[in-house]
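retry 2 of 3: previous attempt timed out while embedding zinc ion. Reduced batch size to 1 and resubmitted. Inputs unchanged:
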Amino acid sequence: MSIQYWRVRDRYYRLIGSKCTDCGDEFFPPVYRCRGCGSDRIKDKEMPKTGKIMTYTVLHEPLPGFEAQTPLHLAVVELENGARVLSQVVDSPEGSIKTGAKVRAIVRRALVDGESGQIIYGYKFTVV
Ligand SMILES: [Zn+2]
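retry 2 succeeded.
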């Protein structure tokens, strides 16, 4: 898990997704084949950092590794380019996390690897 994480770390920090060079659809996480037209002519594309909440859920039961982050807000965010990202929403005022709310991507501590003590960072979103 760690090896793969470090390999893709920069991609996640910069929200690198994919753009289909045939139909122009953009995707995140990256894809090998366009989900719109089926083309395999795909290139890397940095995703916009802002979007809006399409739908969300609140988890009151802590997930393993997320005990300190309960309740946990999990949202499907539609980025400015139409790509959809499932992500945690944090650092937002009570009641501001709702469908249609504008959000931007931030880098936050995601979890601590219990065995190595290594802190893993990832992208999350915050209401703007
Ligand atoms: Zn396409």
